[in-house]
Design goal:
Helices cover 59% and strands 0% of the residues. Helix 1 runs antiparallel to helix 2. The chain is globular, with a radius of gyration of 15 Å. The relative contact order is 0.17. The mean pLDDT is 82.
Length: 135
């Protein structure tokens, strides 16, 4: 994984959205109001802006895959994948563990903002051979 400082208005918007969502996910896991459907909907809300972020920045790859903006977009998408792995672990523990292993996420799979820190430079990332969250 390349070393890139995530900054700029696009990243700030995505990071703020993820920061707000983690609190909603934690609330959905509370014993008083546990709701699997709400958790899954919130995890979808995590994945969607990550995909949008990547789509909005993929044109930089046409210029050069070494473009810092393109590589930063990849790092941002890995942060989203880390969040999905950590925050989904209570309802889909096997798939979350597979995703964490695939992206080299070695932190605790807890529902908190720790997942929002970019991966370490040089972190190896695997290639999925099939659906991670598939049946």
């Amino acid at each position: 994984m390349p070393a890139h400082d995530l900054s700029g208005p696009d990243w700030a918007i995505l990071r703020n959205r993820l920061s707000r969502t983690v609190h909603e996910v934690r609330d959905a896991y509370r014993p008083q109001g546990f709701d699997t459907r709400r958790v899954v909907a919130l995890l979808d809300e995590v994945a969607r802006p990550g995909a949008d972020y990547g789509h909005g920045h993929e044109h930089y790859a046409d210029r050069s895959r070494n473009d810092v903006r393109y590589q930063s977009a990849l790092v941002a998408q890995l942060v989203v994948a880390q969040a999905l792995a950590a925050w989904g672990s209570p309802v889909v523990p096997g798939a979350s563990a597979r995703l964490a292993e695939l992206i080299g996420y070695q932190q605790s799979l807890t529902v908190d903002e720790a997942a929002l820190w970019p991966p370490a430079p040089g972190q190896p990332i695997g290639r999925a051979t099939g659906p991670v969250f598939g049946v």
